[in-house]
Design goal:
five-stranded antiparallel beta sheet, 12 strands, 479 residues, 10 helices, five-stranded mixed beta sheet
């Protein structure tokens, strides 16, 4: 620090000047008086000169004293303030004086303690907020009014990276963006909602469809001093919820349709009987038979619904024991051989591996699986075609599986329908009817649940016009 610009330098210069002025003033008046009234004026002048030198020396000593008592504490105070400015909030002064500088040091220490406590509280709040954001399963993204990202949690950062290559046109909402407005860092799917939040100043909620997913977005404005400073968006992946809701509505619609059809037929034929429209006992018996068949169909539908509900709730009654699948397949072959002859369909059984024994399985449930799969094969295979049952083995992730393939030469399933054939009431070919078997549309869904209850796997491959193959894999060892 420049000494002459310091407080002590200015004070020393002031005292020096005052002393010099006093001495010069006194000298101007005393020197002529001394020359005229004293004989030994030279000695007196030398004494006066010595007094001036001593005065200037005392002034310098006083300045050094001021440097020690004022400048050094002030420099320590400045150094402590700079330490706090650099973030060293634990800095304290140890000045033990009772003057104003001591009071200043005490006040400074109190200020530093309060500041350290405030900073510690802010850091705790920040750490708490960070922990809350990290633990949230929802994505949280905060923007300022210019659309710049202020804060995100890990899920929000992952979402921003996943949406980084999406353009506004891809979302189908480009026309919703206000003219002349742009948001460089706001993901395109959120921009219409972002500008709506800033313009209207209230919470906004919407479902955003991005690629194959659906996101529920809740965006609220950030208000400070009665002005909007940005917006915070909370996003939740509701793809599964939307899919389940659609399945629920479709399920209700399909059940209503499946029940309405037999009910309508039963009502119509019963009204015909009541109105005496049957002209002969044979016609009456035919109408009664139709009513009976439709009532059986409704009973099968209700039974399948109850079975499927119990399976999906995890209440499958499994009587596990050792099962000889070779014997079971032989029994299924004999069971469907008569039907194959009636339909002019070639049914083949190919057991190409050794003993087909499952250590823990439910024979009745597996028979239900094979019955449903073979029934589907016969239902959609024309005459003079072939249905094959082929066995094999597979090793997946170090576990041995028994593999059973049921292949038909039917019309096949379109590739876009193949992923959904195990859903309830799903029809791969909307033009197909269930034929003479009167299927309920729940067979493959029940099959999948039974196989998964055995810790197995089931899949299907198909080509239009060539046929369909269902691949069933069951674990050999007990799981």
């Amino acid at each position: 620090m420049n000494f002459w610009r310091s407080l002590v330098g200015k004070l020393w210069l002031t005292i020096f000047c005052l002393v010099a002025v006093v001495i010069m003033t006194v000298g101007l008046f005393l020197l002529p008086f001394i020359d005229s009234n004293f004989a030994n004026s030279g000695e007196i002048k030398r004494l006066f000169l010595y007094a001036c030198m001593i005065g200037f020396s005392l002034t310098t000593f006083f300045a050094l004293f001021l440097i020690t008592k004022i400048t050094q504490p002030m420099q320590r105070l400045i150094e402590a303030a700079n330490n706090i400015r650099r973030g060293e909030y634990g800095t304290r002064l140890t000045l033990k004086t009772s003057d104003e500088i001591g009071q200043l040091a005490t006040t400074f220490n109190h200020m530093a303690v309060q500041l350290e406590e405030n900073i510690r509280s802010l850091n705790h709040e920040k750490a708490h907020l960070s922990s809350v954001l990290r633990s949230m399963s929802d994505a949280v993204i905060t923007f300022d009014t210019a659309g710049r990202i202020i804060l995100t949690n890990p899920h929000g950062q992952s979402l921003l990276e996943a949406w980084s290559d999406i353009s506004l046109e891809d979302t189908g909402e480009a026309e919703l963006l206000p003219q002349g407005q742009a948001a460089s860092e706001v993901p395109p799917p959120l921009r219409p909602l972002f500008f709506s939040t800033l313009n209207q100043g209230g919470d906004q909620r919407s479902n955003v469809h991005v690629r194959q997913g659906v996101w529920s977005v809740h965006m609220a404005p950030l208000v400070a001093e009665n002005s909007i400073r940005g917006a915070v968006a909370v996003l939740r992946d509701v793809t599964e919820e939307v899919r389940l809701e659609k399945m629920r509505t479709d399920f209700v619609a399909n059940v209503s349709h499946e029940i309405r059809t037999p009910l309508s037929m039963m009502q119509g034929y019963s009204e015909a009987l009541l109105d005496g429209m049957a002209s002969s006992p044979e016609e009456s018996a035919e109408l009664v038979q139709v009513i009976h068949d439709e009532s059986l169909r409704m009973g099968r539908l209700v039974k399948d619904l109850l079975d499927l509900a119990r399976m999906e709730a995890g209440h499958t009654d499994m009587k596990q024991a050792q099962v000889d699948m070779g014997e079971l397949l032989e029994r299924m072959y004999r069971k469907f051989s008569v039907r194959a002859k009636e339909r002019d369909i070639a049914l083949k059984l190919d057991i190409s591996v050794g003993p087909l024994v499952l250590k823990a399985a439910d024979a009745d449930k597996l028979e239900q699986v094979l019955t449903n799969l073979l029934d589907n094969a016969f239902r959609h295979t024309a005459a003079d075609r072939q249905i094959s049952i082929v066995t094999g083995s597979a090793v997946l992730e170090g576990r041995r599986y028994l593999e059973i393939r049921i292949c038909d030469e039917g019309a096949g399933i379109a590739p876009e329908d193949l992923p959904f054939i195990f859903e309830r009431f799903y029809k791969a070919d909307k033009a197909r009817v269930r034929g003479e078997s009167g299927g309920t549309g729940l067979g493959l869904a029940i099959v999948k649940n039974i196989v998964e209850a055995h810790h197995g796997q089931i899949s299907a491959t198909s080509k239009l016009g060539e046929g369909t193959t269902f691949i069933l894999r069951l674990p050999v060892e007990k799981q």
